[in-house]
Design brief:
Alpha-Beta Plaits, 9 strands
């Protein structure tokens, strides 16, 4: 089974990690066909194991031991990524200068803290939908790309990581389906 690990905080904020080191960490856990994508904490790998929570925990422990700091990991399968793209909450959104983002959560919140759509205060960044363990948002430049992540972390009291929907599309195009 081919999986993607989305790593929080890799190659930002002074936490620079070469792709070879990330690949080494994953290979040392017994994963096969390990590769990275776009230098931003996206690791694609194959495994025969199917317990995503156990895989996530193993990766987090290994990265912490290798790097000396906590790295939160979000595991998604290729079919899950395909489902994210098929959901298409961005269809009705204004496209000009817009970035369409997906924020990965560790679990679906029981109670979401705001009514959607919701504009993040003092910005034009807007949370537009939630489905399963992902929140969808739209930003319009001006340094707003990080706002959905930090806003959701503060409201949900959990770690999250955000990717542009184009990265998810490119991952599927490049690495195909299981």
């Amino acid at each position: 089974m081919r999986l993607v690990a989305f790593l929080r905080g890799i190659n930002v904020g002074g936490h620079i990690v070469k792709k070879e080191k990330l690949q080494e960490a994953f290979v040392s856990l017994g994963f096969q066909n390990v590769s990275t994508y776009k230098q931003s904490g996206n690791v694609i790998f194959e495994t025969n194991r199917d317990n995503a929570a156990e895989i996530q925990s193993e990766i987090e422990k290994r990265l912490c031991a290798m790097l000396g700091y906590e790295v939160v990991v979000f595991i998604r399968s290729l079919p899950q990524l395909k489902s994210i793209l098929e959901f298409e909450p961005f269809k009705s959104q204004e496209n000009e200068d817009a970035s369409f983002l997906v924020t990965f959560l560790p679990r679906r919140p029981i109670d979401f803290p705001v009514t959607l759509p919701y504009t993040i205060p003092k910005s034009t960044a807007k949370l537009i939908a939630i489905k399963d363990k992902e929140v969808y948002s739209v930003t319009h430049g001006g340094g707003e790309g990080a706002l959905p992540n930090s806003f959701l972390e503060s409201k949900l009291k959990t770690k999250t990581t955000t990717r542009n929907v184009n990265v998810i599309r490119e991952l599927l195009e490049r690495y195909g389906q299981d």
